[in-house]
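Researcher: Next sequence.
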Amino acid sequence: MKRGIIKKGGFSLIEIMVSLAIFSIVVLVATGALLSILNANKKTQALKAVVNNFNFALENMARNIRVGTKYYCGPESGIPPQGNFAARDCSGGQYIAFWDGEHKVFTAYRFNNSPNNTSIEKDENIYDVEGFTPLTAPEVEISDLRLYVTGNVTGDNMQPKVRLIVKGKMKDNAKLKLDTTFNIQTTLTQRVLDF
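Model: Next structure:
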């Protein structure tokens, strides 16, 4: 009877080391991809919250201006004297006040360009003592707000229109490299017929 060489099954030390190295590389790449996906999700959620806040502010402003009457527009945020609220057209103003017939008050919006607060602000009743409150979140940095009001004079056969131009950027307070600039323009027409 002839004795042959019997091979035992198994892996050599070099084969195990190579397979462990390949497995480690695959795990490292997969972990990097997972962290990248988590970071992208965090950025998206932060940007979505800022965009939603700005959309709310712009929609609130547009809805109230559309149903308002007697637009008083100007470069300053001076409040017209009570009882002498005359409609006024303007070109490039940063302040608008108008009669809110639903709430029976004069409402105003303005651009606050102070060093620590660049926002759009709203005053629900310009003749009360509470004053303006920010409408946009601190993450929304408004760099410019321009209002162009035309057709505001009664009897001019023009329906009052407000053209609104807003420029700014959505700041990244979480340092996720998300700063996004925007430039939005919209035209609003007064819903109440102007006779």
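Model: Residues 13-189 form one domain. The longest helix spans residues 13-67.
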